Amino acid sequence: MAASDKQSKEEKKAAKQAKRANGKQQRGQFWQVLKMLAKEDKLFVPGVIAIIIGTAVVAFLIGLLWGGQWWMLFLGILVGILLAMMFFSRRIQKLMYSRYEGTPGAAAWTLDQLRRGWRVTQSVSMNTHFDAVHRVVGRPGIVLVGEGEPHRVKPLLNQEKKKVARI
After folding, report:
1. Which of 32, 89, 97, 143 is 20 to 30 A away from residue 159, measured at CA?
2. What is the pLDDT, as a whole number, of residue 121?
3. What phi, psi does 142 have (nearest 5°)?
4. Beta partners for residue 144, in sequence order
């Protein structure tokens, strides 16, 4: 009985250490992305500060209008942080899209970012110039996405349309 208790304690300790290491890695990635975004986008840091302070001030003023509700300031700060995180998310998405723009495989990467409800099959048809056709299946039906030079992608798209029409 004592050996199994000792083993379960060691397993719990190992699980806790793995969870801490995972959290540390995620925080490190967040700071790395934050530094990269601040370096690339000069309006990011002032934008975040303006969002947090502006939201806090507006909430504080609304609280004063309601008869001196000071707790609205804290609510405004929390809502400001939430809005700043949304701003951060949109800016990093814009930065990543601009980084991948014009590179082979950018369409496939972009399609992988789609939300739930879409099944993406990458490179269902490809040629030696790295022109590709990707298939996306969702509620509206089948969508074919071509990537590459238009005069080389058109035959690939036509070929894939014929395959899809058979099904």
Report:
1. 97
2. 74
3. -105, 130
4. 135
